[in-house]
């Protein structure tokens, strides 16, 4: 339930061909530690160029964040993307809203994020492809440290089962 369909070190490692070859043309993007570091107003290096490549390849994106509109709206504006704030991942409601916004089918959608317990679990529950990226920066908040420890434990467990490598 927590295991991502695909895994990459960073978002810009995901190539349009990789997605299109799997019929994935619509992306649900996490913000914090996926497109930039926590609370940071500027996209991480390479993110704008990556988004441009995606849209040139006909791949559409929407932002789905558990963070509030005050944080998400200006960031989404910078990227020129529609957004849903207070997304309540891993609940399905936010993903449902993305699907309606993008006018697409579940089989064409993939969610990209850095957290197993929100981004990946939510995508799996909703029934769309899930892509895990490494967090851009380690968090210092204690709750995050606990979550990351659990996540790393799970990823280690999956690795022992021989299912862990990166896809690119
Ligand atoms: Mg995140």
Strand content range = 5-15%
Q: Enter the CATH topology name.
A: Rossmann fold
SSE class:
alpha/beta
Q: Tally the structural domains.
A: 1
- Quaternary organization: single chain
Which sheet architecture does the biggest sheet show? Answer: 6 strands, parallel
What's the CATH superfamily, by name?
HAD superfamily/HAD-like
CATH class: Alpha Beta
Helix-strand string: EHEHEHEHEHEH
Query: What ligands can be seen in this structure?
Result: magnesium ion
**Per the principal axes of the C-alpha atoms, what is the gross shape?**
globular
Low-confidence stretches: none
Write the SSE topology.
Blueprint: E1 6-8, H1 16-20, E2 26-29, H2 47-56, E3 60-64, H3 69-79, E4 83-84, H4 93-102, E5 109-113, H5 116-126, E6 129-133, H6 142-160
Parallel strand pairs: 1-6, 2-3, 2-5, 3-4, 5-6
The structure holds magnesium ion.
GO molecular function: phosphatidylglycerophosphatase activity
Protein name: YqeG family HAD IIIA-type phosphatase
Organism: Harryflintia acetispora
Summarize the model shown.
The chain is an alpha/beta fold and 168 residues long. The chain is built from 6 helices and 6 strands, in the order βαβαβαβαβαβα.
Description:
The protein has 168 residues and is α/β, with parallel strands linked by helices. It has a single domain, classed as Rossmann fold (3-Layer(aba) Sandwich), CATH 3.40.50. It has six helices and six strands, in the order βαβαβαβαβαβα. It has helices spanning 16-20, 47-56, 69-79, 93-102, 116-126, 142-160; strands spanning 6-8, 26-29, 60-64, 83-84, 109-113, 129-133. Strands 1-6-5-2-3-4 form a six-stranded parallel beta sheet, sandwiched between helices. The relative contact order is 0.21. The model has no long low-confidence stretch (mean pLDDT 95). Magnesium ion is lined by residues 30, 32-34, 113-115.
